[in-house]
């Protein structure tokens, strides 16, 4: 059963919507994150340049290192988890449009079939109502004369 699904060739994405999506990602995610990262980097460089060696002591630096190292490892764990999540989401996003397109095509097909069935079921009632309306109009024409 799985081999049948894997052997079906996947269709390409809609180029217009994919291009629009890439532009939205660029302007709504990539550029803001890049700009704020550069601002934070610039502020960090400014802080480092502003401090002099005379103002800080060696023990303060050592204490700070011992406080930063555990936070670094916790952050590293979260970073790895985030990177793995991003990788999986990218993989899933690469596959989902094809399957959603198939589902959409199937639903359009089912909708068309339902419309045909509905038309076949409704046709006898429409014929009866049409015949009755014709008879009433015929009767009205005769009574009018």
Portion of residues in helices?
over 70%
Indicate the overall shape. Answer: rod-shaped
How far the N terminus sits from the C terminus, by CA atoms, comes to: 74 Å
Report the average pLDDT across residues: 85
Task: Name the structural class.
Answer: mainly alpha
What is the ordering of alpha helices and beta strands? Answer: HHH
What summary fits the major beta sheet?
A: none
- DSSP summary, beta strand count: 0
SSE blueprint and pairings:
Layout: H1 2-7, H2 15-50, H3 58-144
Describe it.
With 145 residues, the protein is mainly α. The chain has a domain at 13-50. The chain contains three helices and no strands. The protein has helices at 2-7, 15-50, 58-144. The N and C termini lie far apart (74 Å). 0% of the residues are buried.
């Amino acid at each position: 059963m799985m081999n049948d699904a894997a052997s079906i060739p996947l269709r390409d994405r809609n180029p217009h919507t994919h291009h629009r999506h890439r532009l939205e990602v660029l302007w709504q995610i990539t550029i803001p994150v890049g700009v704020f990262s550069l601002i934070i980097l610039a502020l960090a460089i400014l802080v480092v340049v502003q401090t002099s060696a005379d103002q800080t002591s060696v023990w303060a630096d050592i204490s700070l290192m011992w406080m930063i190292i555990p936070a670094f490892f916790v952050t590293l764990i979260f970073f790895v988890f985030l990177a793995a999540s991003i990788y999986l989401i990218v993989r899933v996003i690469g596959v989902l449009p094809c399957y959603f397109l198939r589902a959409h095509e199937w639903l359009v097909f089912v909708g068309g079939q339902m419309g045909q069935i509905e038309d076949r079921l409704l046709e006898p009632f429409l014929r009866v109502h049409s015949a009755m309306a014709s008879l009433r109009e015929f009767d009205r024409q005769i009574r009018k004369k």
